[in-house]
Amino acid sequence: MLRIAIQTKGRLNEQSVELLREAGVIIKEEKRKFLMRAANFPVEILFLRDDDIPQTVAMGAADLGIVGYNEVAERGYEVDILQYLGFGGCRISLAVPKNVQYNGLDYFNGKRIATSYPNVLQRFFDEKGITAKIHTITGSVEIAPAAGLADAIFDIVSSGGTLISNGLVEVEQVLHSEAVLIGTPQLCEEKMNIVRQLMSRFDSVQKGYGKKYLVLNLPSSALDEAVKILPAMRSPTVIPLAQSGWCSLQTVVDEKELWDIIERLKAIGAEGILVLALEKIVL
Ligand code: PRT
Ligand code: ZN
């Protein structure tokens, strides 16, 4: 039995549960407990605050954990980073009040910086030769400059909206983060087999993120042209239609390129274009 620690509530909880569900690890949402056994996989889920996940995994009280890379980097516990999971993306950045003149890292020499990530910041300043006073704050770091508690902050940024609404400007992006799967070093072979199986399922789920399945009809004479436009895992599937001179084409496309591809296909005579959701890609 493998134990996986995930966040009880908060930004990573929903997507962690969803990733596990898509990978076939189903937990019953009603009467949620601290520790829950999955219905159909040799796994149990331990619900914790994200701050406690790296240590719990380092100690071996959980074999795996899903947590932001930022927490792993800050806490410094010895865990293996097994997989980047493609959600929970953010960065930890230095930000200063918008009215100050910022002309490079030297600005921070002798300044007071409020943060919940003192270790990551100290390492960065050591590397860059900056001497600053780091104030550790848990809670709303972004209000520290306006409250006169700090000259700058070092905090998580995703859209940047929080900085703007507090009159701050992001000046240095120090650490990029996303949710990661972490593991206790040196798991036994029996557990590693389940971990490998799980990672391969996570990989299939991730490959489906941002992808669509495209089905369309095309005059057979335009097929060579369409193949050049369409990306495909090997090459697109081509099925003849009952009406002679026409075929049906099916393939997987990246959502970002979808409209561009559709317009180019229409220009060479494609019709009846269907865009379908795609769940997983198993290679
Ligand atoms: O209760 P628990 O201790 O488990 O949760 P928590 O409150 O400590 O963490 P939580 O749920 O807020 O975040 C969990 C993880 O989500 C973080 O460790 C990051 O890895 C990731 N993540 C991704 C974020 C954000 N995006 C994010 N935007 N964590 C926090 N924020 C906050 C940030 O602190 C700031 O206040 O959102 C604000 C900035 O957002 P923007 O969009 O305005 O820039
Ligand atoms: Zn936390």
Features:
D-Maltodextrin-Binding Protein, domain 2, binds phosphoribosyl ATP, 32% strand, 283 residues, 5-stranded mixed beta sheet, binds zinc ion, 15 strands, Alpha-Beta Plaits, 3 domains, alpha/beta
Give an account of the 3D structure.
The protein is α/β, with parallel strands linked by helices. It has three domains: 2-85 and 178-207, Periplasmic binding protein-like II (D-Maltodextrin-Binding Protein, domain 2), CATH 3.40.190.10; 90-177, Periplasmic binding protein-like II (D-Maltodextrin-Binding Protein, domain 2, 3-Layer(aba) Sandwich), CATH 3.40.190.10; 210-277, Alpha-Beta Plaits. Helices cover 27% and strands 32% of the residues. The protein has helices spanning 13-22, 53-59, 69-75, 118-128, 161-165, 189-208, 223-229, 258-267, and strands at 2-7, 35-37, 43-48, 64-68, 80-84, 90-97, 112-115, 133-136, 152-157, 168-177, 179-183, 211-219, 237-240, 246-254, 271-277. The protein has a six-stranded mixed beta sheet, sandwiched between helices. A five-stranded mixed beta sheet has the order 8-7-9-6-10. Strands 13-14-12-15 form a four-stranded antiparallel beta sheet, covered by helices on one side. Strand 13 and strand 14 (246-254) form a beta hairpin. The chain is globular, with a radius of gyration of 24 Å. The chain starts with a strand and ends in a 6-residue tail after the last strand. Bound molecules: phosphoribosyl ATP and zinc ion. Residues 49-51 line the site of zinc ion (ZN).
